[in-house]
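Good morning C.,

I know you're traveling, so I'll keep this short. The sequence:
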Amino acid sequence: MTDIATIQPSALPSVAAPTGFGIEGMEDIGTRDVVIPRWSIVQPTSRYDDAGGHEGHFRRNIDGAFAEALEVVILTIAPTRILWGEKITDGAECVSRDTITGSAYGACASCRFNVSANRDLLAAIHAGTPGTRSCGYGYNYVVADPVTEEMSYLGAMGASVRPAKMLHSQFMQKRRAPFSALVTFLLRKEQNDKGKFYVLDGQ
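The tokens, ready to paste straight into the viewer:
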């Protein structure tokens, strides 16, 4: 079984702080109080003007930098939910950063787009009912570069959720905090009846 990422012991305690980012005087400052870059996966359907030749790479939103792999320290892991609009170009319709309350539809536990709360929706998905939509469950990582100590976001949604859970299992089995190790995130190409796409993976 392939792991999502390779894990190595980290000798960087300065970036290994679960809260406050390890900076004296900023103990109560969190990710909501700073601007943090986000890494996205360049998919065949991505519409970046500068994405030519970078399909299957990571892309940083603030400067358009690309990377084939990300070697980072994970500072925090947070479950999240996201509901996309009816069209790909519509973007996100509702986002929950805690899987408890959504930005547009309130409590996730009673939301009609949550398959865990709506059995009719689950049945419609299994039946292949046209126009059926549901929110996706995934994870947001806050990571730090081991050399520059710069922080960024990385998300795991859709087909990347299962590999992400495998990564979490590695830490649980070894009884190690995520910020105690260097993690190398890689990408793997997959294909199904909807076409080809890239998911988080490792070697």
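Safe travels,
E.
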